[in-house]
Automatic annotation (TrEMBL):
One of its GO terms (cellular component) is membrane. InterPro entries: UPF0239 (IPR009621). It is found in: Membrane. The keyword Membrane applies. The lineage of its organism: Eukaryota, Metazoa, Chordata, Craniata, Vertebrata. It comes from Pantherophis guttatus (Corn snake). Keywords: Membrane, Transmembrane, Transmembrane helix. This is Protein MANBAL. The chain crosses the membrane at residues 21-42. The gene is MANBAL. The keyword Cytoplasm does not apply. It is a single-pass membrane protein. Its main location: membrane. Belongs to the UPF0239 family.
Amino acid sequence: MAAELDFSPPEIPEPTFMENILHYGLFFGAIFQLICVLAIILPVPKTYKMDTESFETKSAEVVKKPKLTAISVNKKLKKETKKKR
């Protein structure tokens, strides 16, 4: 009875190229998801928030100035064309 039992390991075929890509791709995907979750959980330093607020106010002031000059230039051109008529 003991001679009839076969305890040898089953033959496992070698993984194909596509199976290897899938295997490692799943690992990289899991690592990427963990990094994303940690980025949400970990707090952002407050100094970064202060820098962005001061940058936003400076950039808003810079943007307003060219708009005003562009409007005044357009008005001057319109006045000149009216004078020529």
